[in-house]
Structures are given as C-alpha cells and as structure tokens.
Amino acid sequence: MKKPKYTLLKLMIAISAFMFAHACHAQTNNNPSLLDYGNYGVNMNRQQLNRGSFNQGNLHIGSLKIHPSFHEKVMYDDNIYRVSGTHRKMQGQDSITTNTSRENESKESDIINIASPGLRLELPLGERFLYGKIKKLGLNWQSDIRTYMDDNASQNADNHYIVGSVTLEVLKGFDLTLNQNFQHTNTGSGSETDQLHRRNTNSSGIALRMSQIIHSLKKLDIEVAYRNFDQDYSETQLERANRNQDDYSFNLYYTLTPKLSINSKYTYSVIEYDKDRAEAGINTDALSDSHTNTITGGVVWKATAKTTGHFNIGYTDREYEKNVHQGYDSDPSALWDTSDVNSFVMDGGVTTRLPWNTILDINVYRQLREAEFTAKSNSFFSTGGSFTLSNKFRKLNSAFTANYFVTDFKGVNRNDNIISLAFNTSYAITKWSQVEAGYSWRKKDTNIDFDREDEEINQAYFGLGFGL
C-alpha cells in the first residue's frame, strides 16, 4: 500500500510544480537551488545573502527533499539613505530628484535587524509523467525582513524571492525546461524620494534543448528559448519605468573535445513601456520602446582537473522608436538626442582550485542595461569584473570579493565608477547551525554633479544561521 501512496504524492507535487512553473514567471537559470537577486542583491551585497550552506536534506517525504533555513543578522550601515555625505545644500528639484524634504546630504547610520526565512524543495524524479519524463524539479523561496533600530522606520522592508523550474524529457534527446522567477523587493533610497520603492518583477521562460538531432553531428545541441520579463513599481511617480520585455533566442552548442566546447547565440529583444510619457505634449523622461539584436559566440574549456573557464563575446544593436525627446531642464524646450546604441558585449570567467582548499574566481563582463531613472538617457553599458578568493578550513568558510565596474550612460556625458570590497566568514557549529560575520565597503563616483549621486557605504554584520 505504501508504493501507491508515494506514487500519488509524487504525482500531486509534480502537477503542482508544473502548473506553478506555467502560471508564474520564469528565469532562464535552470538551477532551482539558485536565486537571481537582481539589482537588489548587488546593492545589498550578495555575499551577505549566503543561504546555501545547509544541504543535508534530513527532512524528506519520499523522494521530496525539504531544506528549511533561517538566518538572523544584525547589521550596521553608515549610510542608509545612500547620499554623498558632502553636506552641500540641495538646490531644489531637478530632472531626477522629486523630493526636497532633506535639506542637505548628511549621512545617517543605523543598526538593522535582518530576519531571513527560506525554504528549498527538491524532487528528483525518473518516472514517466504525462507525455514526458521529469528530469529535474525544484522550488526555492527566500526572504529578508529588515527592521531599523533607530528612528528610520520608513526604511523597514520585506523582500521575497521565488524561483522554480522543471525540466522534462518530452522525447529522447529533447529536453523542455520551464522556469520562474518572482521578486517582491523594496529598492533602496537615494533617488526620487527618501522612501523605499516597492517593485514586483516577474520573469518566465521556456526552452527546448535538442541533442543529436543531426545524426552526422552527434556532438551538436540546439536550443530555442523564449523569455518574458515584466516590471511593476507601485508608486505613481515611478510608473514610467514599468515595462515588459520579450526575448527570443537561438543557441548552438558543439563539443569539440571532452575539455573544449564552443557555442553561439542570437537574441532578438523587444522592450515596451506601459505608460505613455507624453505630459501636455512634452516628454519628461528619455525612456523609449526599443528592439535589440544581439549575437555572441564563445568557448567553454576545462584546462585541468582544477581549472575551468568560459568566454563569450559579441555585438548588440538597439534601435529606439523615439530618437529625440523634449523635456524639462533649465530650459523647458530643451531637446536631447537618444540615439540608437551599438557596441560589443562580452562575459567570461575562470575558476581554479588552489592549494589548501582555496578557490579563485575571476569574472569580467560588458552588458547593456536600461537606465530607468537617469535624466536624458535610455540605457547604459556596465563594464567591469570581480575577483573572489574563498577558502574552507575544517568548519570555517571565508571569502574575499573585490568588484569594479564602470557605467557609461548613452546620450549624456555621464560615467559612474563603482568599486566594492567584501569579506565574509562563517563557522559551522553543528551540521544544522552556523555563526556568520562580514564587512563590506562600496564607493560610487559620478563625473556629473547630480544631487546625491556620489556615495560611500560601509556595512558590517554578525548573525546566526540554521538549516536542514
């Protein structure tokens, strides 16, 4: 009698996850145990969001593995409003600052309590389900509940992340993957107002990977994929950044040798903003609908048993529907050019295992991004790299990370230089508990004297983590 019960349980879980992956929005990352923290994760230091240390899987129902976790941290932040700290008087409103309640740019510090519950589910299945065979099924929920100790309750926030994916072998050699990524976040202060900005993002994707469909090219894999991204700000004054994006891609993968493979990818993207920005016949923001063609190619290699790497390089071309905008500036009739964008893009990285259980990760990138709240600009290129050195010594895990990147805004003479350093360590008290501590520093310099754009932030935290 037990076997039918377990079979029924698996079927119910599989159907629920399958419907969840269909109904919700997906992320192209096929690993259900990972989270894409997006801009929030970058701003709040991804190293502090390390919740993957507990993988024992002591809780399970049949083949379903249940990984609950809870992290409690106390963090000191010396610049909670993300201001320059120059103490200069703000000169009223400009094209990107709509709040004048703060008379100067004095830094304010606070101690923040961060409670982070989470739950990760894994269900490895090999049985037939409907018309296919489920190869991978997972669901991951994480959250941050942030409470400020001093008189800064306006910054209190709860952020939630849900990632789910399912991979089915619909036919032999044909894998269909559905992915979901939902984020409810409160983006940090420092622009528009001193309040947090509530934002929901949904990303859904479907990809079909076909292996060995050409008998004479058994080492060739082909993948066709579709991804939809939708962003929604709850505040009326930020609605101009609400948008929807569709990505259509075609990928080729070819294995040259057991240690070397090559790939190429073509992506066509369409971005449409929800709101017409014309106000009394005048556009107050440079944002515009666009379509983009991107083609990249690269290699993945395994140099030795201890060293792996990848590198992709390509070209992107974006065309905007509106090439000239009119908006409020020092002169209400000022015009600016939001010309089309075309340049190279790339990403790459090397991971190598050093002596004494030390791992070195080096990554570089150049990506085109939307400039949501930067006056007179539609987009910017973010170019930079990161260096991470991590070590495991018995029960002690530690990591040092350095990041540097430059943002080059198109259509306006603005560049941001951003550098950050972080050190984090954790000690496993038991298999299900650990103590954590860390420090991070971030500095942003802007070449144009916008209000509150330069900033320097120091953060330090101490906490406990529990997980099964």
Walkthrough of the structure:
The protein has two helices and 24 strands. With 468 residues, the protein is mainly β. The protein has a single domain, classed as Beta Barrel (Porin). The chain has an 18-stranded antiparallel β-barrel. It is globular and about 70 Å long. The N terminus is likely disordered.
Question: What's the arrangement of secondary structure elements?
Answer:
Elements: H1 2-23, H2 38-44, E1 59-61, E2 64-77, E3 110-122, E4 128-129, E5 132-148, E6 157-171, E7 174-187, E8 197-211, E9 220-233, E10 243-257, E11 260-273, E12 278-279, E13 282-283, E14 290-302, E15 307-320, E16 324-326, E17 335-337, E18 341-354, E19 358-370, E20 379-393, E21 396-409, E22 414-430, E23 433-446, E24 455-467
Antiparallel strand pairs: 1-2, 2-3, 2-24, 3-5, 4-5, 5-6, 6-7, 7-8, 8-9, 9-10, 10-11, 11-14, 12-13, 14-15, 15-18, 16-17, 18-19, 19-20, 20-21, 21-22, 22-23, 23-24
Number of helices: 2
Q: What fold name stands as the CATH topology?
A: Porin
Termini, distance in Å? 29 Å
Q: How helix-rich are the residues, as a percent range?
A: under 10%
Structural class: mainly beta
In what range is the share of β-strand residues? over 45%
Which regions are unreliable across 5 or more consecutive residues at pLDDT < 50? 1-52, 88-103, 326-334
Order of helices and strands: HHEEEEEEEEEEEEEEEEEEEEEEEE
Query: What oligomeric assembly is this protein in?
Result: single chain
Q: What's the domain count?
A: 1
Largest sheet: 18 strands, antiparallel, barrel
The CATH architecture designation is Beta Barrel
Total beta strands: 24
- Overall mean confidence score, pLDDT: 77
- Tell me the overall shape: globular
Radius of gyration: 24 Å
Q: Quickly name the level 1 CATH class.
A: Mainly Beta
